[in-house]
Recover the amino acids of this structure.
């Protein structure tokens, strides 16, 4: 009835096997590699120091020898949580401002796909982090969750302002020194000019009263000028 | 294989086929090769200078190396192979004799002329048959003849005779070119028989599977992953990602330089033990006390901290070398000096990526910082340092002699504007410049293209007012006035105007032509324009003796909102201009008025908008212009009203309109309070017109 020529079919079957096999290996290898890549993506933010401090305060291990774990005062825990919130504010600001830029750059092909993946992961993590902080705050003091980020925001803004102020104030010493030097050099130059003028004036009109007046003034000024100049040189 | 087609058994057809194929492939490749090996920078004018610094040879060799890298070896190989194959095929075509398919001509066979009469034919046939009849003729052994040959020849002769006398045969001959009637024809495939002959089939299949199963996926794959690897700005994607992470809203030029050092390109440059070799030496040199700045490398204390915070490795070395390059610090080691000049072009290519990132954030500060960093890198001048360092032979000591203790840097223009004697007395002297060096510096300074903006204004093509959401053109008029140039001609006021091309002048509207000012009409005083083909002129290549690339300077024009510190209109880039920059001798400036145009959408609300316009050159330090421009957006109804008014002739003096007109006093831009009653239909009218103009305007968008 059906006389199947198995040997003749061998070749097409082998072809199919090779084809399907290739595709399957390719797709599994490719997917595995992709998964590995996305698992190994570096986190957007570094380690969250404030959160680590808060959590270690909360779960203090009992010291060796003693049964009970040391009691951490509530105020310290609250302060640690607030610090954690402040750091979160920094991070959330960074994410908010970067989001639009990142997506538009991705569309234009200026940044890579993995950056976007990292970004989205960071965004998701931040959302959870915020929720966690609010929950913790409510657990510590009922109702605090609503306002903790407001205070954190103010702290962050204040910190930024103070940093800027300090930066400017650190400059003052340097500026003062520079100005002293500058003033001295201007003074000496000015005096030199005056000297030259008076010498000229004397040569021309020796008996002029005003020229004499200037002349009497100069000696008192010149030594200081010279000394300042010396200072300026070193 | 089908037997209908014959393969090229004689081997005279396939050379044609191969020749054509090789020609199709080789010609474009040859064009590519010739085009590429021609130095594109050679066509640009250059700033004429004899200045050579101590490491000019190193920089030159780096430049040449880059050009050599451009030349692809495989391309040369492919082209040579292509031409060899074509030559060989030509030789084959020449030497292989094509099988002769001679036209069968009875006259030739009988050896008579075509005008012969029937009588002549008959007599000739008789003569020939007497001579060549197989019974009569004997085979000639000298000619290597046989009986068969003789027979064949006789048959031919009688055939020819019949063709000329017999009616049917003659018809056959006329119709088909053969007395026997229609002949079969054959189609040959121009492939050598070898390909299809038995036993070779498997090799052909193998070749096919290699071509389509291996080579094609490989080529497509490498192309695709190649595009994924590099960002749109041409830097590695990974570098771009890292730069994005380094971006901060408060970043300054020093910060940008630090950020640039994260580039992955540097990791490839400093592989293995190269990453650390000589690092401590470089660092000690750049952190030594400098003449102008507190540190010799020109880095601020903040930048120093950042450098010291880095782990030692490629990034730290790249950053240290970059600072050494910016501070022009001698490293006393040919290897390190070379590396110093090699990092700069890479850093410059990374500034482009950083620029794109700063632009995506739309903050003015980082955007400007990225442009300034580019200027600094091209000129090898540390951030916030004196622009005078751009001049040849100007060392920190010379700059110090000019600036003294002043904190405000003397700009190049300011320095050159001083009288020659004063300049000379400042910089020529012991330990400073010699007379010759001074002259060299001044000649270079007098060639630097400083774009001095004369006027900047907004307009809408074909309209008198700017209405909300229309397509506004920012017109910047400026001249290239090198610092210290004398006898600069006065600005011709007519040059400052920007006349719309006539509406029927499609070439001008689409930007194919520019209009040249020819003269002024004697009577009306209106300027006369002549349209001419646009021929964009490039300014000379940037004078950058330390930068190991040829760089064509670009100007970026953008608008910012000074209150919010944000970019309002993203940069438009100009690398070529509509009027010549230099005279034919290549050093005298023409002072021709250049027109830069940028188009953008007007804000949707009427009002006065004040922007800060920045014109930033990416190649020279201190050649930037910053000025305030005000965009006045009128209500759409107002523009419609004006149009109606235009149509009405002068209003009578005693009418209200006349009084209004007098009150206006020829100030069409001043807004006037007026009751608007019937503007709804007119407004729709203007909207249509607005659409029209914007449609044409998109065509006239300038190349940038």
């Amino acid at each position: 009835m059906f006389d199947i020529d198995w040997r003749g079919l061998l070749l097409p079957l082998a072809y199919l096997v090779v084809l399907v096999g290739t595709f399957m290996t390719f797709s599994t290898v490719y997917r595995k590699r992709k998964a590995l890549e996305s698992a190994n993506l570096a986190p957007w933010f570094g380690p969250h120091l404030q959160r680590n401090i808060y959590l270690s305060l909360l779960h203090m291990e009992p010291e060796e020898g003693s049964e009970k774990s040391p009691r951490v005062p509530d105020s310290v825990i609250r302060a640690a949580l607030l610090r954690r919130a402040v750091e979160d504010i920094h991070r959330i600001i960074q994410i908010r401002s970067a989001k639009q830029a990142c997506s538009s750059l991705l569309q234009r092909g200026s940044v890579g796909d993995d950056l976007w993946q990292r970004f989205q992961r960071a965004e998701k993590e931040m959302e959870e982090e915020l929720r966690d902080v609010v929950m913790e705050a409510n657990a510590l003091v009922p109702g605090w969750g609503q306002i903790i980020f407001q205070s954190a925001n103010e702290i962050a803004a204040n910190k930024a302002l103070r940093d800027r102020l300090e930066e400017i104030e650190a400059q003052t010493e340097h500026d003062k020194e520079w100005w002293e030097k500058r003033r001295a050099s201007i003074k000496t130059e000015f005096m030199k000019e005056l000297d030259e003028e008076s010498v000229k004036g004397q040569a021309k009109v020796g008996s002029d009263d005003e020229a004499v007046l200037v002349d009497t003034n100069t000696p008192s000024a010149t030594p200081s000028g010279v000394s300042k100049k010396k200072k300026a040189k070193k | 294989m089908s037997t209908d087609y014959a393969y090229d058994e004689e081997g005279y057809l396939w050379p044609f086929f191969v020749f054509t194929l090789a020609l199709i492939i080789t010609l474009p490749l040859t064009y590519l090769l010739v085009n590429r090996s021609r130095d594109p920078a050679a066509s640009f004018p250059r700033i004429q200078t004899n200045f050579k610094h101590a490491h000019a040879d190193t920089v030159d060799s780096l430049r040449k190396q880059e050009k050599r890298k451009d030349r692809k070896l495989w391309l040369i190989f492919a082209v040579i192979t292509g031409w060899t194959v074509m030559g060989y095929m030509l030789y084959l075509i020449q030497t292989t004799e094509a099988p002769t398919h001679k036209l069968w001509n009875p006259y030739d066979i009988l050896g008579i002329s075509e005008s012969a009469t029937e009588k002549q034919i008959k007599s000739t046939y008789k003569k020939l048959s007497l001579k060549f009849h197989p019974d009569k003729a004997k085979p000639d052994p000298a000619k290597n003849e046989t009986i068969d040959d003789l027979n064949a020849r006789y048959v031919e002769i009688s055939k020819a005779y019949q063709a000329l006398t017999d009616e049917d045969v003659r018809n056959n001959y006329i119709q088909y070119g053969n007395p026997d009637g229609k002949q079969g024809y054959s189609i040959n495939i121009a492939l050598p028989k070898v390909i299809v002959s038995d036993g070779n089939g498997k090799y052909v299949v193998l070749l096919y599977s290699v071509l389509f199963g291996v080579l094609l996926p490989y080529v497509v794959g490498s192309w695709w992953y190649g595009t994924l690897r590099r960002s749109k700005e041409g830097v590695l994607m990974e570098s771009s990602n890292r730069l994005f992470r380094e971006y901060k809203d408060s970043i300054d030029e020093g910060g940008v330089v630090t950020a640039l050092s994260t580039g992955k390109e540097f990791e490839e440059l400093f592989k293995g033990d190269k990453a650390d070799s000589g690092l401590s030496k470089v660092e000690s040199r750049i952190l030594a006390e400098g003449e102008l700045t507190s540190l010799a490398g020109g880095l601020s204390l903040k930048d120093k901290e950042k450098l010291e915070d880095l782990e030692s490795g490629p990034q730290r070395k790249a950053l240290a070398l970059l600072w050494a390059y910016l501070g022009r610090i001698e490293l006393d080691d040919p290897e390190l000096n070379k590396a110093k000049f090699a990092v700069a072009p890479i850093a410059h290519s990374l500034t482009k990526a950083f620029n794109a990132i700063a632009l995506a954030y739309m903050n003015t500060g980082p955007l400007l910082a990225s442009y300034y960093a580019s200027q600094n890198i091209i000129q090898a001048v540390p951030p916030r340092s004196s622009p005078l360092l751009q001049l040849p032979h100007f060392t920190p000591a010379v700059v110090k002699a000019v600036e003294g203790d002043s904190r405000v840097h003397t700009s190049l223009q300011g320095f050159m504007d001083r009288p020659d004697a004063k300049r000379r007395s400042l910089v020529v002297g012991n330990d400073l410049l010699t007379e010759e060096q001074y002259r060299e510096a001044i000649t270079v300074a007098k060639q630097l293209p400083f774009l001095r903006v004369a006027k900047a204004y907004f307009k809408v093509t074909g309209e008198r007012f700017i209405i909300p959401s229309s397509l506004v053109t920012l017109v910047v008029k400026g001249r290239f006035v090198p610092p210290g140039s004398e006898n600069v001609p006065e600005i011709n006021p007519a040059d400052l105007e920007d006349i719309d091309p006539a509406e029927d002048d499609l070439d001008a509207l689409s930007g194919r032509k520019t209009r040249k000012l020819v003269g002024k009409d004697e009577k009306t005083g209106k300027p006369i324009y002549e349209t001419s083909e646009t021929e964009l002129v490039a300014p000379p290549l940037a004078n950058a003796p330390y930068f190991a690339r040829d760089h064509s300077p670009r100007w970026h024009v953008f608008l910012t909102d000074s209150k919010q510190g944000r970019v309002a209109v993203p940069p438009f880039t100009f690398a070529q201009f509509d009027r010549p920059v230099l005279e034919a001798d290549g050093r005298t400036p023409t002072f021709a008025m250049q027109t830069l145009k940028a188009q953008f959408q007007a804000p949707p609300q009427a009002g006065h908008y004040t922007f800060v316009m920045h014109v930033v050159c990416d190649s020279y330090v201190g050649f930037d212009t910053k000025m305030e421009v005000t965009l006045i957006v009128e209500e759409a109804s107002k523009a419609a009203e004006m149009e109606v008014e235009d149509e009405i002739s002068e209003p009578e003096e005693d009418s209200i309109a006349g009084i209004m007109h007098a009150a206006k006093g020829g100030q069409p831009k001043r807004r006037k309070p007026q009751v608007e009653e019937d503007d709804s239909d007119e407004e729709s009218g203007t909207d249509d017109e607005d659409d029209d103009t914007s449609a044409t305007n998109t065509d006239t968008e300038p190349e940038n």
Summary: The longest helix of chain B spans residues 201-229. Chain B touches chain A through 22 residues (CB under 8 Å). The radius of gyration of chain B is 40 Å.
